[in-house]
Design goal:
The protein has 338 residues and is α/β, with parallel strands linked by helices. The chain folds into two domains: 154 residues, Rossmann fold (3-Layer(aba) Sandwich); 176 residues, Dehydroquinate synthase-like, alpha domain (Up-down Bundle). The protein contains 15 helices and ten strands. The relative contact order is 0.11. The protein has a six-stranded parallel β-sheet with strand order 1-8-5-4-2-3. The protein has a two-stranded antiparallel ribbon with strand order 6-7. A two-stranded antiparallel ribbon has the order 9-10. The protein binds nicotinamide-adenine-dinucleotide.
């Protein structure tokens, strides 16, 4: 049943890079992350048979200008095949958006190379770019034809980026009361971890939600837990936090808000704090910057005339579109994690 959920989303698992590239159509075009190509030069033999472009994945470059570069590449080379994004969430979001809009939509395939992309952005069809510094403000929903996951790529991923993926896994562990968080307590270190069971759990939860509410009109909002504050931190301090690190801090502040709003027990926040320390997450936000962060939170596309958050009534019981007062947010943001 759960395998079917992922099959329906076009998720395939491969154990080698060779198997990954053999599973791609022969008429594919490639957009490849520049760092991935440096770390895995053997990829060259798979992609150089076909037109390819190399891209730098940087959050400040995730803009319409980057999309236009993909359009130029597609304009020169595209016939009928899919365009394949080989990289992390940035490449997937940008190439997916270009594919969604070029010739009113051409097929695209994802080969995620970061933990975050494997456990989150590869599924769900959200594509887009930042606009005037605000996260993912321009975009649409457009599903990849398939996503091929190969954990081998994670061998070269720096600890900060592994932690970033872990941030999204922590979110899944709070949204569903199962043994995900407990499992993390038993892991020795990030670099020795086998991520496969966690990726699977995360994707299964995400698939079950997305299949009920693809357009993010109600139930899917739960996956935004931690993201109002997370996106604001990422927008305000782009060079400080990786996406999932900002989300992990967001989870902390949004758990605090959940305690004040729903009387959520503080044990859950204490569990989170232990895991954040165990895996060396950044646990502070720059002092005296509450107003800057609030400015970004006000611009969040999840708001209407009020600030709207996903909060937890209990472990595994999210409540969506909850109104939060600016005063409470200010108070939360001035809270220092022990
Ligand atoms: N569409 C969605 O549903 C969704 C969900 C979550 C996040 N996102 C977006 O994803 C982005 C973050 O994605 P990300 O964390 O994958 O970041 P990323 O794409 O920026 O990659 C992080 C860094 O790792 C490098 N890298 C990639 N693969 C590597 C590998 N195998 N070995 C060594 N280095 C490698 C990249 O060059 C980059 O420097 C954000 O822009 C976020 O908004 C989208």
């Amino acid at each position: 049943m759960e395998e079917l959920l992922l099959k329906k989303e076009g998720i395939e698992f491969k154990s080698s890079l060779k198997g990954t590239f053999e599973a791609l159509p022969k008429d594919a075009l490639f957009v490849v992350d520049s760092v991935v190509l440096t770390k895995w030069p053997e990829l060259m033999s798979s992609i150089c048979q076909r037109p390819y472009m190399v891209m730098e994945a940087r959050e400040d470059l995730k803009t319409l200008a980057m999309v236009e570069k993909v359009y130029e590449f597609l304009f020169q080379h595209h016939e009928t095949g899919p365009v394949v994004a080989v990289g992390g969430g940035i490449l997937g979001d940008v190439v997916g958006f270009a594919a969604a809009t070029f010739k009113r939509g051409i097929p695209f395939i994802l080969v995620p190379t970061t933990l975050l992309a494997m456990c989150d952005s590869t599924l769900g069809g959200k594509v887009g770019v930042n606009y005037k510094g605000v996260k993912n403000y321009v975009g649409t929903f457009y599903k990849p034809q398939k996503s091929i996951l190969c954990q081998t790529f994670l061998k070269t991923l720096p600890a900060k980026q592994l932690r970033s993926g872990l941030g999204e896994l922590l979110k899944y562990g709070l949204l569903k009361k199962d043994d995900l968080l407990e499992g993390l307590f038993h892991e020795k270190s990030l670099v020795e971890m086998d991520f496969a069971p966690y990726i699977l759990k995360g994707l299964q939860l995400k698939a079950s939600v997305v299949q009920e509410d693809f357009r993010d009109l109600y139930k899917r909002n739960m996956l935004n837990f931690g993201h109002n504050v997370g996106h604001a931190l990422e927008g305000a301090f782009p060079m400080v936090y990786a996406h999932g690190e900002a989300v992990a801090l967001g989870l902390y502040y949004e758990l605090l808000l959940s305690e004040w709003t729903f009387g959520l027990e503080k044990d859950l926040r204490e569990k989170l704090v232990k895991l954040l320390h165990k895996f060396d997450f950044p646990t502070t936000i720059p002092l005296g910057q509450e107003e800057v962060i609030l400015g970004y939170i006000r611009k969040d596309k999840k708001n209407d005339e009020k600030l709207r958050f996903t909060l937890l009534r209990a472990w595994g019981v999210p409540e969506i579109k909850i109104e939060v007062q600016e005063e409470e947010l200010r108070k939360a943001l001035s809270w220092v994690m022990e």
